[in-house]
Design a protein that fits this description.
Elements lengths: L1 H6 L1 H29 L9 H9 L8 H10 L9 E5 L5 E2 L4 E5 L7 E5 L5 E8 L3 E11 L7 E7 L11 E3 L2 E4 L4 E2 L5 E2 L3 E4 L2 E5 L13 E3 L2 E11 L2 E9 L7 H11 L8 E5 L5 E2 L6 E2 L18 E4 L8 E8 L3 E10 L8 E7 L11 E3 L6 E4 L11 E3 L2 E10 L1 H28 L11 H4 L3 H22 L6 H18 L8 H18 L4 E9 L12 H14 L7 E2 L9 E5 L3 H19 L3 E5 L6 H8 L6 E6 L3 H5 L13 H5 L11 E2 L2 E2 L2 E2 L5 E6 H6 L11 H13 L4 E2 L10 H11 L5 E2 L4 E2 L4 H15 L9 H7 L4 E5 H10 L7 E5 L3 E2 L5 E2 L7 E5 L6 H12 L1 H15 L10 H6 L4 H11 L12 H16 L4 H22 L4 H9 L6
Parallel strand pairs: 30-31, 30-32, 37-40
Antiparallel strand pairs: 1-16, 2-5, 3-4, 4-16, 5-15, 6-13, 6-14, 6-16, 7-8, 7-15, 9-12, 10-11, 17-28, 18-21, 19-20, 20-28, 21-27, 22-25, 22-26, 22-28, 23-24, 23-27, 29-31, 32-44, 33-34, 35-44, 36-40, 36-41, 38-39, 42-43
Helix pairs in contact: 6-8, 6-10, 8-9, 9-10, 12-23, 18-19, 26-27
Protein name: Carbohydrate ABC transporter substrate-binding protein (CUT1 family)
InterPro entries: Bact_solute-bd_prot1, SBP
Pfam families: SBP_bac_1 (PF01547)
């Protein structure tokens, strides 16, 4: 027996570990499931009173679901047989500006009211015959603007009924401008998309499609007013409809009608509509994509073929595309699609499917596409794949439209969002008791100091548990990673309810869960799908096979593998073999570079005759440029180069001094003067900025109102910020200033605003010595680190999620936060603002708000044989027209998330920003100033991070920490100057030439 145990001891150990793990996991989950089943609130605790207290004081409007639930509890019901149509020109009142009357617009007879400017509005009076629910919609005509969809808000009787009413989206129409084009390698590229003008009709519905049907508005019998206000983009209104809710028949009802009409099933028909050939779409981001599965039609093993549609860009609620299908005879057909849904692990996505502009029956509002890591065939039907729905189609052409639908998840996502908000509220109450840095071992008696602490935690866990069950009922696969976040949050809430003493020591975990839940909601709101083709067939015809056999797939993989050794993956578009070809390397993603190359071929080469080859520099591989320069094979021009790099090449005499060109000053005037500082060396300029980051002050209007702080009292100076922080912390909230402890390289950018606002610099004597020990720099360090030491603001936080939850209702953040709030926080529409970041008041009364935003650049290498052509290219690329088009094309391809923050001032004003945001950004840009880049400056970056750590984390006296850091910085600066032969004589010569940095 002993011998046997010794022989198999390793196997036994492994088995034992696996068994123990399984038992632990099962027991843990079973315990918590049992705990959920056994949850009971304390006697005398009213669950509804807890929920009401958590909602009390909120300035945010309720969600649509809560609005309807509230009226349903009061007995509200749908009205019937009512429809009222209002002409847009029969308004009761208009805004003072920004409106005009259009005649004959889009070939339509009569007049129409156009809302042109942001915040322009029109108000209408109407009357309804009875109490109950009504729906609304309007016809509209999208006018020339900035290519974005139209956004309007509506008020009824002077108020927003629910927060979604502040952001109603009305899409434009887009189509392909011509045929796809092919490069000389045989690769296919998307044609340009152009807008199609025309009248459209859309009901007032959720912009994110988290609600299945058009909004229901509860109206009492009598007179009411409806105000429609422009939020974004100009558009004309035709008619406005107010009507009783439309009840779409079910499939069973429609099938009964088919039988009554005597409709017959057709025979012998199989029609495929290739998805890449969509005739119309709501968004220019919807485009053809490549798929390498051999069964995808069409397929070419030797080159790129755009043979599918959608993918990651077809994911946002309300986005639609439509296809034209012609059937040879009238009768009953089945409809389906070959699709790929490998985006949400274990979770289905949904689409709303209409035929000829109408919903055939109710079930088509939520066609589900289950998850699978390979291609599938969807047989549109609700009773399993064995019995697809039947559709009656007349002989001739028909239009099938598919629209992103998130409705099935809508309430669940809202429940989780509400839970994160309640967690944030509870977290603030805990901080009010314990302070921001509590003793984790202290007995804070939270149950005595916070009302209903345990029941509230239990109710939050219960909400998450119900969401988990709802996801499984929806068809989510067992073991889906998308559910694990909810399990973790539920279990943590339960453990906190069982052990409230541990709460102060676990607030970090509690806050991280809020961020995880916020990320989870954002992720599941994106419902991506890939289509190969739509199928319209007779019931007697077999469905196509979903995927190629394993032999074909294996053969394709082997062919791709062997081809990878000879294929040029760096070249983009047309690759020229001529001697006189401009070689441009771009350090950006391939999608971005595809756009640049297409613009070059269509505009630059056509206008100048200069041929250009484009190559992609892999992500995070900027050293490739240095290696190429050293080896003598550098490109002529490089784009997307990080802002600190040009000086490294300039000091090695590797770049062209752009000031040698006679029109440099004219080109430089396109940018803020402070944006050019990092690219100057020894009296010359060696790069041009492409894009430009910026920091702004973001704030929650509703929470500021709760604190008694008006718009005019939002801080303009750091002194005012320090007056505000105690008020925030007394209410369990905090101010945010960015700090990235895991990325010390960002510390210099975090510190720079304080230094510049003190009218100081990083270096003195043309970069010979560090200036961080100057009195002004000392004050800057004290102000910067004092936010963390004296005022105890968070040293690390996910500002976006905590801003949404209200835990950090005000803070400094960069451009990426603006994009997130604009695209992924619809519940905050109208309740957040942005203004220039705080500064220091000067003697003349001005507030110095200086800050930088070092981004990416373009530069010309010294070894180029095409010096003039390179300058022509760089001028073309940084021009306002080119930057505007690139920004528009990029946003059309990748969505608002990829909005191009160009450094060209004129181009920025043309981008699809809201006018109020543009005004705030330009005001901040008036103070834009970037830091110098010097040889050895990386030690400055390193030691600024060290100084912060020494002062904030180790409690060292600021002067002592600064002097130690400056000593090391000066040592490295001297070492590097000696290495590159920058002696005192060369320094004096440089100074006489007006250089900014050595």
């Amino acid at each position: 027996m002993i011998r046997w145990l010794r022989k198999y001891k390793v196997t036994l150990v492994v088995v034992a570990v696996l068994v123990c793990f399984f038992l632990w996991w099962n027991n843990s989950r079973g315990y918590n499931d049992a705990a959920m089943a056994g949850i009971s609130l304390d006697a005398g605790i009213d669950e509804s009173s807890i929920l009401e207290s958590e909602d009390a004081g909120s300035k945010l409007e309720p969600s649509f679901n809560k609005y309807v639930d509230s009226w349903n509890e009061q007995g509200a019901a749908d009205t019937a047989d009512f429809k009222l149509t209002l002409s847009s020109v029969d308004f009761k009142a208009l805004s003072g500006k920004g409106t005009r009357i259009e005649s004959g617009l889009g070939g339509r007879s009569g007049d129409a009211l156009a809302l042109i400017e942001e915040d322009s509005w029109a108000e209408y009076a109407f009357e309804v015959p009875q109490d109950g629910y009504y729906q609304m919609g309007m016809s509209y005509y999208a006018m020339e603007g900035k290519r974005s969809s139209i956004v309007r808000s509506i008020q009824i009787d002077g108020v927003y009924p629910f927060f979604q009413a502040k952001k109603l989206e009305f899409q434009r129409m887009w189509k392909e401008a011509g045929e796809p084009w092919f490069d000389n390698q045989g690769n296919e590229f998307n044609p340009r998309r152009e807008e199609t003008a025309g009248w459209q009709y859309r009901e007032f519905r959720d912009a994110e499609s988290k609600v299945y049907e058009p909004f229901r508005f509860y109206l009492t019998k009598g007179k009411h007013t409806l105000r429609i206000q422009a939020v974004r983009e100009p558009a004309a209104i035709g008619e406005i409809d107010i009507f009783s809710p439309v009840n779409v028949p079910t499939y069973e009802e429609v099938l009964s009608t088919y039988e009554q009409q005597g409709y017959k099933k057709v025979e012998g028909q199989l029609i495929k509509a290739q998805a890449e050939l969509s005739t119309l779409k709501s968004d220019p981001t919807l485009k053809r994509i490549e798929d390498r599965e051999p069964a995808t039609e069409p397929f070419n093993k030797d080159s790129i073929v755009l043979n599918a549609f959608g993918g990651a860009s077809w994911r946002t609620g309300g986005q639609w595309a439509e296809w034209e299908v012609e059937v040879p005879e009238s009768g009953l057909y089945e409809i389906g699609a070959r699709y790929g849904q490998w985006f949400l692990n274990g979770m289905p996505t949904q689409r709303k499917v209409t035929i000829d502009g109408k919903l055939p029956f109710k079930e088509m509002n939520e066609i589900s596409f289950p998850y699978k890591a390979e291609w599938q065939i969807s047989k549109f039907g609700g009773r399993g794949e064995s019995e697809p729905y039947l559709y009656y189609l007349e002989k001739g052409k028909h239009t099938i439209r598919m629209e992103v639908q998130v409705g099935a998840l809508g309430r669940m996502l809202e429940t989780v969002t509400d839970t994160t908000r309640k967690m944030s509220l509870l977290g603030r109450e805990v901080i009010q008791v314990t302070g921001t840095n509590p003793d984790p071992n202290g007995d804070w008696r939270l149950e005595q100091n916070i009302n209903n602490l345990v029941p509230r935690l239990q109710l939050m866990a219960q909400s998450l548990d119900e969401t988990i069950k709802g996801l499984y009922a929806l068809g989510v696969n067992e073991g889906s990673s998308e559910v694990s976040t909810l399990y973790e949050a539920r279990d943590v809430l339960l453990s906190l309810a069982n052990d409230t003493i541990s709460i102060p020591g676990r607030m970090g975990q509690f806050n991280d869960l809020q961020a995880s839940l916020g990320t989870w909601v954002n992720g599941l709101s994106k419902q991506s799908l890939v289509l190969d083709y739509l199928i319209v067939k007779s019931p007697d015809t077999d469905w196509p096979k979903p995927a190629a056999g394993w032999i074909a797939r294996t053969g394709t993989m082997l062919y791709d593998f062997t081809s990878s050794f000879t294929k040029n993956y760096g070249g983009i578009g047309n690759v020229y073999e001529d001697e006189q070809v401009l070689d441009v390397w771009v350090a950006r993603g391939r999608d971005w570079v595809d756009i640049i190359k297409q613009m070059i071929d269509e505009d630059f080469t056509t206008e100048t005759g200069i041929k250009v080859n484009i190559n992609v520099i892999p992500a995070q591989q900027m050293q490739v440029l240095l290696l190429a320069s050293t080896a003598g094979v550098a490109p002529d021009v490089a784009l997307g180069v990080e802002g600190e790099i040009p000086i490294d090449y300039a000091v090695r005499n590797g770049l062209v001094n752009l000031e040698e060109y006679s029109d440099y000053d004219e080109v430089a005037a396109r940018f803020r003067p402070g944006a050019l500082i990092p690219y100057k060396y020894n009296g010359g300029s060696y790069a041009l900025p492409e894009n430009q980051n910026f920091n702004m002050l973001f704030y929650r209007k509703d929470i500021m109102q709760q604190l008694g702080i008006t718009e005019e009292q939002i801080p303009d100076t750091w002194e005012e910020v320090m007056d505000l922080i105690p008020i925030l912390q007394q209410n369990g909230m905090d101010f945010f200033y960015p700090h990235a402890p895991n990325n010390p390289g960002l510390a210099i950018n975090e510190f720079a605003p304080f230094l510049f606002q003190q009218n100081s610099e990083f270096y003195r004597e043309n970069g010979k010595f560090s200036n961080l020990d100057s009195p002004e720099a000392m004050e800057a360090f004290k102000l910067w680190t004092g936010l963390f030491t004296n005022f105890k603001i968070s040293k690390q936080a996910d500002f976006y999620n905590r801003f949404r939850s209200g835990e950090m209702p005000i803070g400094v953040a960069d451009y990426s936060t603006y994009v997130l709030l604009s695209t992924a926080a619809p519940e905050l529409t109208g309740w957040w603002g942005m203004k220039p970041m705080p500064g220091i008041e000067q003697e003349d009364g001005q507030i110095n708000r200086s800050t930088g935003g070092l981004a990416q650049t373009g530069m010309i290498f010294k070894d180029t044989d095409m010096k003039e052509q390179s300058w022509e290219f760089l001028k073309w690329w940084t021009s306002a027209d080119t930057q505007e088009r690139f920004g528009s094309e990029l946003e059309a391809l990748l969505g608002v998330e990829a909005r191009w923050n160009t450094a060209n001032i004129e181009a920025l004003t043309r981008m699809p920003w809201q006018s109020s945001d543009i005004e705030a950004i330009l005001q901040q840009w008036e103070w834009f100033k970037e830091r110098e880049v010097v040889i050895g400056g990386y030690y400055t970056t390193r030691h600024i991070a060290n100084i912060w750590n020494q002062i904030v984390l180790n409690g060292k006296i600021p002067r002592e920490a600064i002097e130690e850091g400056v000593k090391e910085i000066d040592k490295e600066l001297r070492k590097k100057r000696e290495e590159f032969g920058l002696n005192d004589e060369s320094t004096d010569q440089q100074a006489s030439k007006g250089g900014d940095s050595p």
